[in-house]
Write a structure and sequence with these properties.
With about 100 residues, the protein is mostly helical. It contains five helices and no strands.
């Protein structure tokens, strides 16, 4: 499932949702070997987060500026991701459409 359109729409409503989608997509890609965002959207979101200093109350502690500059959260282990990210990613990967963008600020 590709979430590019949902990620773009959520970002327009709340810039902090970019952090949510980057962490969610990173977990899916590096831990479940599935892509939720295109490389282009993922890269643009990491750049926006870095350039605009966007923060998310539950997720920003996971991401460093070096991660954002590299455009990758490869250094995170599966156990580093919060349970709600793992749960959401697994629901989406199973085809559920009732996921919730956490904490639109």
């Amino acid at each position: 499932m590709n979430l590019d359109n949902q990620a773009r729409a959520a970002y327009k409503q709340s810039p902090s949702s970019a952090v949510y989608f980057v962490v969610l997509a990173s977990y899916a890609y590096y831990c479940q070997y599935e892509s939720l965002l295109s490389d282009d959207v993922f890269d643009k979101m990491t750049k926006l987060i870095l350039d605009k200093n966007i923060r998310h109350s539950k997720l920003s502690h996971l991401i460093t500026d070096d991660d954002l500059r590299a455009g990758s959260l490869f250094r995170l282990r599966a156990t580093d991701y919060p349970d709600f990210i793992i749960d959401q990613a697994e629901k989406i990967l199973r085809g559920a459409s009732n996921y919730v963008v956490q904490e639109l600020e």
